[in-house]
Amino acid sequence: MRRIYMDHAATTPLHPEVTAAMLPYLGERFGNPSSVYGEGREARKAVEGARARVAEALGADPSEIVFTSGGTEADNLAVIGAVYASGVESAHVITTAIEHHAILEPCHFLESLGHQVTYIPVDGSGIVDPDEVRKAIKPSTVLVSVMHANNEVGTIQPVAEIAAVCREAGVYMHSDAVQTAGALDVNVEGLGVDLLSLSAHKLYGPKGTGCLYVRKGTRVRGLLLGGGQERGMRSGTENVAGIVGFGVAMELAAREWKERSERILPLRERLIEGILERVPHTRLNGDRERRLPNNVNLLFDFIEGEAICLKLDFQGIAASTGSACSSVSGEASHVLLALGIPPEKAHGSLRLTLGRENTMEDVDYVLETLPAIVEELRRMSPLYHG
Questions:
Q1: Are residues 79 and 129 in the same domain?
Q2: Could you say which of 107, 166, 309, 325 is catalytic?
Q3: Does residue 324 register a pLDDT over 60?
Q4: Are 82 and 175 in contact (CB under 8 A)?
Q5: Is 377 left (phi over 0), alpha (psi -120 to 50) or beta?
Q6: Nearest Cα to 183, choosing from 102, 291, 270, 266?
Q7: Under a CB-based contact definition with an 8 Å cutoff, are residues 78 and 95 in contact?
Q8: Of 213, 289, 328, 332, which is most buried with the most CB atoms under 10 A?
Q9: Could you confirm whether 325 is annotated as catalytic?
């Protein structure tokens, strides 16, 4: 059976150019970049070349790029590292109710240590009001963290406006841009952020690699202590092959993001409109216009999204109910709850996220397959009345 993959928000396949660039560093070029002899120098050159590629893609300086094991570590380093470096005994952090757990859990950890966190609400489309951030800032505020775009519903946040509010108040601004690199223009000067997290496997790079952009002058304390790699901000032998792949993936993303988005957008629109036309008692989650070009997140009344995903999988379609990182919990999405959706309805969500290999034929197959699945599940649902 032919497989159709529509869960690119969870992970993406390796781009062929990324694979080709990584292969030598999985074999004969195995040196430790901290070693002074030839093999080590070769590895160091590869790491620094990738750092330059990532920096150029972001409009940053190579010295501002700290490689990590992925977006989660980058988020933890930004949030906890900024608070630790501040020296404020009871520091204040501002974030939103719809952040990824890689932000929310570090915030909960800081609260357990006696620090304070304000969780800004969002409107029914999932958008943060910059004025709400302004009102929440106080003298002890160290950091504001607002994601560039939501990983579940795809809503794009006014990060540049929020960053301007932070700059005016003298507060650091961090943004989780894991979902936007390769889909939007992610330029740190345009966004105005001090800290920015990225993950390679969301943009056709390898798993286990990411980075944190740290603007010059921004104080962040490293969380992993040891040999002092990454300027002391992330000790541990660098994942050379992963970093090389990340560099190529970022270079491709910066060069192709507009073309990719323009190609995928008509597919997204056909998917949204086709499902809403064919399946009654269905609504779109997130903002209709200010959303990622590949994101479709829908709510189906009377049934559970997990059952839809399992039925789609049997028909060769890979989709999800939301974040892959929290799919095992069985709880309703905190993002959908924050949008004001009741728990019993929030369980009925389905997320379809398109990628570079998807075609209009794939979309048509989903439109042919999904309505019958929903109808079948609703017939079995005690909540469905006609």
A1: yes
A2: 325
A3: no
A4: no
A5: alpha
A6: 291
A7: no
A8: 213
A9: yes
> In CATH, what number is assigned to the domain containing residue 320?
3.90.1150.10
Q: Is residue 206 domain-resident? A: yes
62 lies in a domain? yes
Do residues 133 and 162 lie in contact, with contact meaning Cβ atoms separated by under 8 Å? yes
CATH number at residue 182: 3.40.640.10
Query: Using an 8 Å Cβ cutoff, are 309 and 350 in contact?
Result: yes
Q: What mean pLDDT is reported for the chain?
A: 96
Under 8 Å between Cβ of 194 and 215: yes
Read off the pLDDT band of 288 (50, 70, 90).
Answer: very high
Q: 188 and 321, same structural domain?
A: no
Does the residue 170 lie in any domain?
Answer: yes
- Domain presence at residue 357: yes
Q: What are phi and psi of 2, to 5 degrees?
A: -70, 135
What pLDDT score was predicted for residue 325? 55
Which residues constitute the domain of residue 303?
A: 4-11+257-380
Spatial contact of 204 and 14, defined as CB atoms under 8 Å apart: yes
CB contact at 8 A, 153 and 297 = yes
What's the pTM value of the predicted model, to 2 decimals? 0.96
What is residue 178's three-state secondary structure? coil
